[in-house]
Amino acid sequence: MQKFIVAALLAQGLGMAQAQAQAQAQAPAPAPAPAPASQAEAPWVADARKVSMSVPPKLLAVLQEEIARGGPEGAILVCRDQAPQLARAASLESGWTVRRVSLRNRNPKAVPDAWERAGLEDFDRRAAAGEPPGTLEVAAVVVVDGKPTQRYLRALPTAALCTQCHGPADKLSPAVVAQLKALYPDDRATGYQVGDIRGAMTLSRAVP
Ligand code: HEC
What we know:
Layout: H1 2-13, H2 17-26, H3 37-40, H4 43-94, E1 97-101, H5 114-128, E2 137-144, E3 147-157, H6 163-166, H7 174-183, E4 197-206
Heme C (HEC) binds at residues 60, 63, 72, 75-76, 79-80, 83-84, 100, 102, 105-107, 110, 156, 158-159, 161-162, 164-166, 189, 198-199.
């Protein structure tokens, strides 16, 4: 429980201008101006952010190319192979363990652990409160298996392109529905609207 509180506090320190503004509005007493995020932030957080942001554009490029070539139903197989592969490549290159997770996962392995779940639920609340979904992140040092571990979670918002495979069931093409049923019989990752948080990039590494 304590870990999540630390995470939430850290999240506010990470440039959540809105949360700070809110806190100020609730406390009219002259408060010192909050430190800019760049001053409050540990260098590892910037590194994790950079790595987390390097993967989605690569996957997006692959998706766009494959959808143009074979429609969304053709791109599903490519996504299944390429997405984990790109995450693995980023892990090897950066030294972080990089994965994708979701509260409603498609890949049976993309289940969030307790820390990731708390972060994803927090993202949903913050997005509902008006924070831009593309900026949502949380970072914290938490103890995992007795080891202090740096953890970073960054939201992946649903864009229009994503709804071809993650949108409401009645908006998916029959070919996409059939392919998803064949490959992911336990799929929970449909029903998303543009702007919804589809999941997150999650990074972790032992404190060096
Ligand atoms: C062509 C179909 C397709 C499109 C378009 C697509 N996805 Fe996916 N998505 C998939 C498939 C298939 C998986 C399962 C991949 C795997 O096995 O790792 C997946 C998995 C994911 C996951 C991992 C968590 C989970 O549910 O398994 C996230 C996060 C995700 N997609 C986000 C997005 C976002 C954001 C977009 C738009 C930028 C997008 N997807 C566009 C097919 C698609």
